[in-house]
Fold:
Amino acid sequence: MSFSFGQSSSTPTSNGQANPTTSAPASGGLFGAASGTPSFSFGNTGTGSGASTPAAGGGLFGGNAGQKPGGAAVMDAALLLIAGNETCPQPQTSEHLAAIEIMKLDKIIILQNKVDLMRPEAAQQHYQSILKFIRGTVAGKSPVIPISAQLNFVDCPGHDILMSTMLSGAAVMDAALLLIAGNETCPQPQTSEHLAAIEIMKLDKIIILQNKVDLMRPEAAQQHYQSILKFIRGTVAGKSPVIPISAQLKFNIDAALESIVNTIPVPVRDFTMDPHMIVIRSFDVNKPGAEIDELKGGVAGGSILHGVLKLGDEIEIRPGIVTRDEKGALKCTPIFSRIVTLNSEFNELKYAVPGGLIGVGTRIDPTLCRADRLVGFVLGLKGRLPEIYSEIEINFYLLKRLLGVRTADGKQAKVAKLAKNEVIMVNIGSTSTGAKVAAIRNDAAKLILTSPACTNIGEKVALSRRIEKHWRLIGWATIAAGVTLEPSTS
Structure:
């Protein structure tokens, strides 16, 4: 099975960023504050500590590199975020500190980030390098506080019959941990499928974990390691580190964490676009027998791809309630509500930014959210979401061989061409829906979707075919055009 994760932000302030009184942000950034509140600068100091801010610049003043100072002019103090997995100082760290001196900010706190992912001796050496760097500067007497990064893991099933579930989860991932059991031959059918899915979802930051080495003799573990290297050769994971671990005995987990820090940078996020959240879970949080005045609205869980959500926002969920009219034509009624709570694990948020898993509390009838009924839907601001498609035209690419399916002579079965009127499964974001092949021409096809999907032109989708009672990955495609549904407002 594969474990993947997204970077998560900490508790934001009213300007949408991390609250300096709580844990510091995993991705850094620099922003002003709302009127009447203290403002802090969150300076990013290297790609490992997050070279992205809401202004997409990563600079101290919340703008692009080379942009004139703006945000710092209204700041009262500064938080300087330094990534523990990079040498100190980085060039931009020196620039940020110089800018702090220019703007006469003498209230400074230095945050040594990602110490939980470092070996103790390495963290201590890095701490000393920070003290040496700030000696004799305006930050010379500033406190240096070690903090931890926050990662969110999306556990995807490894069983081949749950392939569609895995593809849905992959839609919100920034990177992947591919877990391979050392006491089984490599590759297993689902391992091949997961690696293919990783390529389809454009995940290029991958770490491979060779698990259960405690159950193997040293020579067997070495042979299995070589088989993994042979398996990933020539794939998107060809240069990925392979780390032997024992999850049961927690052997080498520190090496896995260190590899996460050194291999996977904080993704670049766009805070300026309209918010777009993919829903991968939904809940009714009310307990049986709750009083009427204690009832709460449904909760949608997922990951924000871009933009910022905040408490009180009017939101829309598409496609929403899907029905058919008297003529049998599909009809979509989007769900409208307002955000009443935002949560990330145990943290209550005022703002939610891209990365990590977010729970959005709403005023929606909880029966509509019960048992993951909103999975595959898209959440965003009212009137700002992509179109809803009932038919799509795709440019597709089929795999040469079926992953995990062999013929009588032991060879991998070939992938048959798409046939007109064939029904396949399409994964669009976290949406899994059936699709009838209406027309085919060369590497292009027209699909009639069983359930409408909210998506964008150019979106990459996965294609699966039912073989031997299981859905098997057969290829991927890009959406080129489609037939849209006009949402009902009734």
Notes: The two ends are 43 Å apart (CA to CA).
